[in-house]
Specification:
The protein is an alpha+beta fold. Helices cover about 30% and strands about 25% of the residues. Helix 1 packs antiparallel against helix 2 and helix 5 runs parallel beside helix 6. The chain starts with a helix and ends with a helix. Catalyzes the dephosphorylation of histidinol-phosphate to histidinol, the direct precursor of histidine.
């Protein structure tokens, strides 16, 4: 597969613009928050970030499609930018700093570029296909990400977003048993669980219900850090209805326990 250096640089430019927009309104007393049809909240920043990115990509990559959480899909073709303007909107509107903009480029069903930018945490993670995973404030000040070497569930640290949803997909008991088997469990939540897997600080992360825009950027970063990212049924990448991200060594055992 060809290099995607220019696409990665563009993704960082998009992330810079997103960070400026989100931080400008973070903790604003007059932040406008609406409720979407699925009853989840959406802030004015969610909508503005997505709008800014759509306009930038319309100029820079006019032939590419765009998939956004707020406004859906525009354009068509094998190249599509998949964006979650704010992953962790509930944290954002409450002043909790664990939220991020997720930006990825997919060619057909393969993620080739991913950037996760969490400005309130002062962190950014990124990867491009075949070039490893990195973290830092910018491309020129990066440190490599590498998953852990933990090889036993009993020694593993597991992170999750919430306990709701596992019963809905018929996995409540399996999930509870997996948690009980692990050395440590913490709800770091959302994107952060998977970035901690990529950094080697956490060994397992999983969520029962997710969309493509929730997962695409996370998947390539975990994979390029040496881990594995699949759905609960083992579908590779972000193309299923949920997510399991691990250091790789634990992956098959985690999937078996969630059967």
């Amino acid at each position: 597969m060809p290099s995607h250096t220019d696409d990665l640089r563009l993704a960082h430019i998009l992330a810079d613009d997103a960070d400026s927009t989100t931080m400008d309104r973070y903790k604003a007393l007059d932040l406008h928050v609406a409720t979407k049809p699925d009853l989840s909240p959406v802030s004015e920043s969610d909508s503005k970030v997505e709008d800014v990115m759509r306009k930038t990509l319309a100029r820079a990559r006019p032939r590419d499609a765009f998939v956004g959480e707020e406004e859906g899909t525009t354009g068509w073709g094998v190249r599509r930018w998949v964006v979650d303007p704010i992953d962790g909107t509930k944290n954002y509107i409450r002043g909790v700093p664990v939220w991020a903009t997720l930006i990825s480029l997919m060619i057909e069903d393969q993620v080739v570029v991913g950037v996760v930018s969490a400005p309130a945490l002062g962190k950014r993670w990124w990867a491009s296909y075949g070039d490893g995973a990195w973290t830092g404030r910018a491309l020129m000040s990066a440190q490599p990400c590498r998953v852990s070497d933990v090889s036993r569930i009993e020694d593993a640290s597991l992170s999750y977003a919430s306990l709701k949803g596992w019963e809905k997909i018929g996995k409540k008991n399996q999930w509870a048993e997996l948690m009980d088997s692990c050395w440590r469990t913490r709800a770091y939540g959302d994107f952060w669980s998977y970035m901690l897997v990529a950094e080697g600080a956490v060994d397992i992360a999983a969520e029962p219900e997710l969309n493509l825009y929730d997962m695409a950027a996370l998947a390539i970063i975990v994979d390029e850090a040496g881990g594995r990212f699949t759905s609960v049924d083992g579908t590779p990448g972000p193309n299923g209805a949920n997510a399991v991200g691990t250091n790789g060594r634990l992956h098959d055992e985690v999937l078996k326990r969630l059967e």
